[in-house]
Specification:
The complex is a heterodimer. By secondary structure, chain A is an alpha+beta fold. Chain A has a 5-stranded antiparallel β-sheet with strand order 3-2-7-1-8. A 3-stranded antiparallel β-sheet of chain A has the order 4-5-6, with helices on one face. The N terminus of chain A is likely disordered. By secondary structure, chain B is an all-alpha fold. The mean pLDDT of chain B is 85. The two termini of chain B are 25 Å apart. Classes of the chains: A alpha+beta, B mainly alpha. At the A-B interface, helix 1 and helix 2 of A face helix 1, helix 2, helix 3 and helix 4 of B.
């Protein structure tokens, strides 16, 4: 232990100097080795302590940190739940948006085929009526169209004229006219629908085929699995009719 | 002189090499360092008192370090490791202070 009351030595500085002289003794070398070890240990411990994490903290500090972390964690959890909900909402929203878009596209396609503004293809029948004598009247052709519609035809064209809801048949001076355009012989009717049903409808007794043959014309019906109705009906803007908004009440 | 150079060399090596303290040694290193410092200050004081001996220095250094580490180890085993560490540090700190006071009297006569 210390002896605080030991008298100061006059030759302290000299003694220190004499000790500082290098001496090649085993013990001195050992002391140097120990000094190296001590320096190394001090530096290591200091560095270790600087990089030390939570283990050097007191219990109360640790509790505070734990509380902080818990609160932060629950806050982040809450955040994550909210974001997840928003994400789910967005995903389902975009999915339903795509569904709505698909439905609208399908509706548009159906309406375009009905209105004759889109080319259509599919199974159907191709019917050729040759009437060299010109005995087949326009009404007979209209009957044929009606028969085809009854049999489920979804898109019809006669020669290169698309038949739509507003198509009209008339008996002109030089032959049959559809929508005011002359239809040349032979009449070629392409109809998309169930081929077998339409062919049967054309061939029933007292039906189209029989009537046409009675008039001295020939009719040829071919069922086809792939048929294209390529003629288009020019779209005309209605002059008077306007669509009623969906939300407005419908008048009886 | 040579031990002082050794101390500097050790410090430099420790700072440059970034050694990682093994987990098993982590509780003992700080106490061992304090004990070694106590031995060093005791050695300097012995020099000034004119009673320095290389052998005594080496032995006291090693025994200080070992005893300090052993006390901490014992405390850990008994479940009072941190308290015993604090006690060792206090005792060694008092010794270092008194040694430094003695050295100061020798050097500055005050």
């Amino acid at each position: 232990m210390s002896q605080p009351d030991s008298p100061p030595t006059p030759s302290a500085g000299r003694r220190l100097m004499s000790m500082a002289r290098p001496r090649a003794t085993k013990a001195n070398a050992l002391a140097a080795l120990l000094a190296i070890l001590l320096g190394f240990a001090v530096a290591t411990q200091v560095r270790q302590n600087q990089s030390l994490g939570l283990e050097s903290l007191r219990q109360s500090d640790l509790v505070t940190i734990l509380d902080d972390t818990t609160a932060k964690s629950s806050r982040l959890d809450q955040n994550a739940r909210e974001l997840q909900a928003i994400k789910d909402q967005l995903v389902s929203g975009s999915a339903s948006g795509a569904a709505v878009l698909n439905a609208a596209q399908e509706r548009l396609d159906a309406l375009a085929i009905l209105a004759g503004t889109a080319r259509a293809h599919g199974p159907g029948i191709r019917m050729t009526i040759s009437d060299p004598a010109g005995k087949v009247p326009a009404s007979q052709l209209l009957d044929a169209i009606q028969e085809l519609r009854d049999a489920g035809a979804e898109a019809i064209q006669v020669n290169n004229i698309r038949i739509v809801a507003s198509s009209h048949f008339s008996q002109g001076a030089s032959g049959i006219e559809i929508d005011g355009r002359r239809v040349t012989q032979p009449y070629t009717i392409a109809a998309i629908g169930d081929p077998a049903t339409m062919a049967t409808a054309m061939g029933i007794p007292d039906g189209l085929s029989e009537n046409v043959r009675t008039l001295g014309a020939t009719i040829d019906i071919a069922q086809e699995q792939e048929l294209t109705v390529g003629a288009l009906h020019p779209l005309t803007e209605p002059r008077y009719a306007r669509p009623v908004p969906q939300s407005a009440p419908t008048t009886p | 002189m040579i031990p002082a150079l050794g101390l500097l060399i050790g410090l430099a090596a420790g700072l440059l090499l970034h050694p990682a303290v093994p987990l098993a040694l982590q509780p003992y290193l700080p106490i061992a360092v304090i004990a070694a410092l106590d031995a060093v200050f005791g050695g300097v004081r012995a020099v000034l008192d004119g009673i320095f001996s290389d052998k005594v220095f080496v032995v006291s250094f090693l025994s200080n370090v070992l005893v300090a580490a052993f006390i901490v180890f014992l405390g850990d085993q008994l479940g009072v490791g941190s308290q015993l560490s604090t006690g060792v540090v206090v005792v060694l700190g008092i010794r270092i202070f008194s040694n430094v006071a003695s050295i100061r009297r020798h050097l500055f006569r005050a």
